């Protein structure tokens, strides 16, 4: 068989696969060579047992991590002499001094005591030797980690055993050591700093307020006995500090049980990713630090001893990981996180953001530099945009935590933070953090609250969080235990229906008590059904259960304007890879894979952004090489590329996309550099055109610069420039518009037209939480408006024009059916808006229920068409004086006397229904509503309490109803 060492080399080469025995060095150890990873190590121990007849237990396996250690262990087991006799306590102490430990030191020790070769109480011998060296003014720290807390949620400082060796328990029980309060990474300490260490309860496991941060701050030392620096937990401190991409934040909730009392506790743990796999190899850390001059080294018994100052250790390892964030991954794991998957788009780091791709680590380092230079806001922007571009959940969750530190909600420059809550029956922190990162990347800084695990009933019933948006993700079986296992074996759809109805009642109760929007996640039957292919045909199959549950939720949402659904199925189907990950489910309690977490988080962010960002009202498009392939002035109408070929069919797909937006109420306009006759010819002569001139609310075809003409289009349509999106194939034209009109949305289109629709769809230009009938009719309303303008041009004067319209004003009083449209007008109307009070649906509903308040909703129409609900007046009465809280009119209804009709009705309601003799109206300047002040003075309202930003008006007589408007009650 040859020598033991040569045999071991053969075995190591065998488990490593592509390694020859003569390539295994004498100093080989786990991770070096790289092929000797953790999986190969397990196989090696099996071969050792088969070859040498010596079974290797799990404790022994943990210490047998080098060729030398295995050979020594085998020799001891066979009685051969390969090392000196077991060391004495003074010998151990001498070795500790030789590596740099001295009296008064603060030291944290990671030890494998069996490696010393001491058979009787090796833990006590080591502790005594350490205390001999450090003296009475020393502080000794030993790990007492309790990973079981992650499963049980219970940490008993006086009883939970250390899961990383017995030395810490010995220090606590026999040396009066004090244990820290971190439920996962606790330590035991003796010495002057022990009370301070015992009181530690960090917010994050490896953060600045943890024992690892304290070791760095207090210039402590890190000592490894019987193991190398690869076993030093301080390595995780550097990983968390640098937010390495292969780890992510996970919240663990539980209790600290001490003295018969349970104290709630929560800790954020920067855990290793399981999807994709992130197998770690810490040997590079050992090689890096052990090779430094500040690192001491000695051998005592069978144990190697290493010791280094924490500050030097940190400086060297951080520098190396700055250069290579994947330093501590195995070669196999690096393939998951490097190559095609690791490069990430970092907006702003290249001249052409459309082609900018780089490692997320590059953006992280740039953000770190910006923060150090006193630019936290810019650092935040770079970080979250890069994380959103990366799109994997480990990066998203890690970036979320860092982004919160860079730009807290309280320091964000925004009128009011959007409050986002999550509640449900599973782990929600990864979803919440992914969502928040995407929201922050959009320029909005949310305040996120995640409910307690499984406490959705109480949180919804008690309205625990008055959020702007609350996400509710509850599995059917959490509502009805009878459905347990339905994803495999199906269940009773009627029970699923009852479960959905219970959830709807809980959510509706929250909506009654709170002002925000609720978003219910629909369930997904991801697991494999035991009925196989027949499942979809069974009335009680898993798909039937999911369909019944989801249908009931959708019907509930249809009946409530502030209730929405998030259908996860189409979202995760667009991701690459699995939608469900068993490892994540059993380790983290969430039934989604990593890619699915990122995708659902991004979808959830759309709801949050929609509460703060109005949708695009008009899409302005170019013609040549945009709506069709080719240039009409050069190629001629027949030479243009359209149907049945590339790129023509892709351009036609863009027309279909635009037509769909037109039908959803988004205005379309043309801005093209062309002769007008040439630009319109394809619409008239090519039957394969999808769009026609009638689909466009404005058409501008000439040779003037596009920015000025887009501004004209916005003015013609009476919309803000910030409500316009511009699509053009030319990078020059896009850049010109973007520079001249930065408020406009200008998508940076991909080079190939075949990818335009995918890119544009991902921008979600038309996102809104509610789509009213008025919204969907907007395009036809503008067509009707052009007819009115034509009438105005043909009549002699304004009186004739108004009389010719045949206007009708229909009045609704306290109508709950149009609360959503009422709230929408309050939120969107700026020009003719008396007080600019942005009442929510909930506030309007309370006005409707209040006997001393009246909500007047005016819809209007004329012989050209219906305008829909265009005016709102809210009158509050309490005695002889009533208050005109709100008076507003949509800009498209101005100039035809409807404002006079609305004020006339407000006076009538105040006088006849509320008994008031005076109506007070406060004008508040919003920068765009000066015409309301002029209107109030024109109708004879008396101005009081005049300041630069407000005027209080008093009305003490009726306001005449315009004769040319027919009054009707709806």
Descriptive labels:
single chain, about 950 residues, alpha/beta, seven-stranded mixed sheet, 29 strands
Task: Give a nutshell description of this structure.
The chain has 970 residues and is of the alpha/beta class. It contains 39 helices and 29 strands.
- Helicity range of the residues? 40-55%
Spans of 5+ residues with little confidence (pLDDT < 50)?
Answer: 79-83, 339-358
Shape: elongated
Number of strand elements:
29
Strand content: 15-25%
Strand order of the largest sheet: 27-28-26-25-24-23-22-29
Q: From the helix content, strand content and strand pairing, which structural class follows?
A: alpha/beta
**Biggest sheet character:** 8 strands, mixed
User: What does the radius of gyration come to?
Assistant: 35 Å
Distance between the termini: 100 Å
- The tally of helices reads 39
The average pLDDT value, as a whole number, equals: 85
Task: Summarize the structure in words.
- The chain is of the alpha/beta class.
- Helix content is 41%, strand content 17%.
- The protein contains 39 helices and 29 strands.
- The strands form 6 sheets. An 8-stranded mixed beta sheet has the order 27-28-26-25-24-23-22-29, sandwiched between helices. It has a 7-stranded mixed beta sheet with strand order 4-5-2-1-6-10-9, with helices on both faces.
- Strand 16, helix 23 and strand 17 form a beta-alpha-beta unit.
- About 3% of the residues have low confidence.
